# Entry
Amino acid sequence: MKIPYYPGCTLKTKAKNFERSSIAVAEMLGVELVELPKWNCCGVVHSLTSDDLIHHLAPIRNLVRVQEMNEEKLVEDEFRLVTLCSMCYNTLKRSNLRFIENYEEREKINSIMEREEDYKGNVKVVHFLEILRDIGYDKISDKIKKPLDKLKIAVYYGCNLLRPKEVGIDDPENPDILETLFESLGAEVTLFPYKKMCCGSYQTVLDKESVADLTYNILSNAKEHHAEIVVTSCPLCAFNLDNRQEIVRSKHSEFKAIPVVYFSQLMALAFGLNIEICGFDSNYISALPLLKKKGYLKNK
Amino acid sequence: MVKKDIMEEIAKANKSVIKGVDKKDIEHWATIYIMGKAYRVPADLTIMQAMEYAGYKFIRSCGCRAGFCGACSTIYRLKGDYKLQTAMACQTRVEDGMYLVQLPFSPAEKPIYDIDTVEYEENSFLKYFPEIARCVSCNTCTKACPQDLEVMDFIQAALRGDFKKVAELSFDCIQCGLCAIRCPAEIVQYNVAQFGRIMYGKYGFKENEFLEKRVTEIKEGKFDKEFKRLLSLSGNKIVDVYKKQQATKSKYLKKGGKK
# Structure
């Protein structure tokens, strides 16, 4: 099964390990993520101003590429667009919903885009986690080579996968898609009341300290519930929870670092994929000592 | 490959400019508006030739007259069309009802960077050109490009630090500045592209392995004997050798393939 795939800038720069592991995991499950031959910025933040149409050009233009891929037979009658980055998912999907519902505005966007073919409103933006859910957790369990039963995992959602409700991949108040996934991989998923707490998002640029405080709260909560490793799907959450531990540690001497990785990295590990594909060396706090201790890296 | 007949064609097209009006030779006329003033000009002229025909003398906005230097950026509208269009004056024929003005200069900020110390990493573009993050993918730059480059796509490639793509997509950029003048995000696309090409050339581009091999061969004297032979030949003999070599070359070119 070939599905159009939108990477986004972070997956090509700071989160290469997320992309590599996800593509490999998808392949194991018989899904080929076919990168859009041409793509631009997702739009980053969904513009809420009602007459600010220009900030929707970027997301809609990417959706036109999905139509083109079908016309060029790069995929076969496949109008789903898969994303990995939660931020891209959110922005693309919200714009898409707005212009599917509003024909008049869609025509306006189409007339500004001009050189592109018109966006027909037939693309469906999905997150890779939804593809995994559709494949079925039984099939995922079948692929396990190294069950994650020796790990206590806290799953962190952040905001972009869940809110607003109409684009959420799961119940925004009480999601369990990541829990179910990791239970199917054999892991012990710990209770984690702060799994939807704000990570501080872009404040990390201007106010590192406040973000470090949030990171401290969130990760302390995970550790109180005996988590040994945290997984997420959002590169910005990952950056805040992972890299900002440097500041946390300088402020709180008692704080012990905890690795934060992408869900696909641990999936790749469970599927017995090559350790390079898992990409644990690119996380700021390395998960390798923990994985070594638990016996996941015997050969190394 | 400049052929005589092409040169003659150019001379013919330029006739009305070079030799003044010979009305008998001019079959079609067009009315253009240069900065609002109407001029009746021969319809086969380029914008640049037409302006000279109308009496303008270029001290700016004119360079190579061959579409390479990027000096003669022009903006125009056609009668009855809302679109603002862009062109190189030396490469575009006049059209009836064309309202035009030339752009003498495009002001641009170019950061100073030392290519020996700049790091070849994804974030370098954003470090020197942070305004590229303002791109909303409106594609106005691409529409403005007289070289038909995919300008927006190379700015997007720069955003994600893809030096190779920036270099490849912007290779034919003539730095005319029309994209930068039209950009609502005020990005100077051609400077971003130049940075990308320089950096890719220095750090990303892999030299062909055969180059090194051939340089070694030359140094080891593989061609010394042949050079000696050529240098010892008389003038006529060298011409013969050259003709023979050219003949095999054209045969090779006709086959149109690599051997």
User: Anything to note?
Assistant: The CA atoms of residues 208 and 214 of chain B lie 10 Å apart.
